[in-house]
Structures are given as structure tokens and as C-alpha cells.
Amino acid sequence: MKYETVAVAGTFDLLHKGHKELLSKAFEIGRTVVIGLTSKEFARKLRKPHKVEGYVTRENKLKEFLKRQNLLHRSHIVPLNDPYGPAITSQDIEALVISERTMPRALEINKIRQERGLKPLQIVVVNMILAEDSKPISTTRVRRGVINRQGRLLSRSLL
To answer: What CATH number corresponds to the domain at position 115?
Structure first.
């Protein structure tokens, strides 16, 4: 493990292969992983194009996944009420694990940290995991019935 503490964040709605890769990378490089889990209120503000499961449901499913991977004891799940969470205040967090889609937010987090006199975080980018159709796996696509959580196409007519 390269870092003592790393952070990762997301809504983690309908936990899919892309989410699991992101989390796996975080646990691969960090001894402790702070997982910012989007609160119900913040998820609403993000205006997702689909329904989002409640916070407790998403937290429980996340914990079940981490427990099956024997990683729960190395995690610290915190509600995320804004785009930054503890990443802009914690001196303990050393790195941020993100998807390529969220690079602008990571750079913003480091700018805020520097303004506050904190060390910038190392940014570790995980490439988007692609479905069989070479498009990124996303909860939106799963909810629309285009792909399953592993990225397999469910209906070619929806392409």
C-alpha cells in the first residue's frame, strides 16, 4: 500500500463493475479508505436522470460488498453533503481516487486545500470501465435497461 489514508466518493447507486473497480483501486493503494457516500439531499441536487436508492440502502449494499471483499474493517463511510467532503479539510487524507470524469472536481479540491494551507492530494485516476458496446458502464444505463451491472448488453434495440 502506497498511502495510509485515501478517499473516494460517489453515489454508489446500483453498485456496478465500474464502482467496484474504483473502490478496488482505493483499497489497493490505501491502508484506510474514506468513502464519501452521497447523501439523499446531495444526490437530489446532482439532478441524476434516474431515481436513486436511499442513503441507508446504498450504505448497506456498500458495506455488504466491502464485507465480502474483507475490506469493511479498512473503510470509513461518511455522508457526503457537498462535492468535497473531508477531502478539503482532513490532514490525514493523502490521495484521492477518482474516475477520469471527475478530474475537474479533484483539481478544485486541491486548489481549495492549498488555499487552506493543506498539502494537495495525490490524484489517482481510474479509467472508466466500458460495457460490451464500448461505452462507459453507468447506473443510468443500468436503470434504463441497456446494460447489466457487469456491462453486458441487455437490448440491442436500445442502442
So the answer is: 3.40.50.620
Please tell me the distance from the alpha carbon of residue 70 to that of residue 119, in angstroms, as a whole number: 31
Q: In this structure, are residues 22 and 66 in contact, taking their beta carbons and an 8 Å threshold?
A: no
Is 31 contained in some domain? Answer: yes
- Tell me if 104 is assigned to some domain: yes
Is residue 38 within a helix (H) or strand (E), and if so which, with residue range? strand 30-38
In a domain, 159, yes or no: no
Question: Could you list the pLDDT tens digit for every one of the 159 residues in the chain?
Answer: 899 999 999 999 999 999 999 999 999 999 999 999 999 999 888 888 788 999 999 999 999 999 999 999 999 999 999 999 999 999 999 999 999 999 999 999 999 999 999 999 999 999 999 999 999 999 999 999 999 999 999 966 544
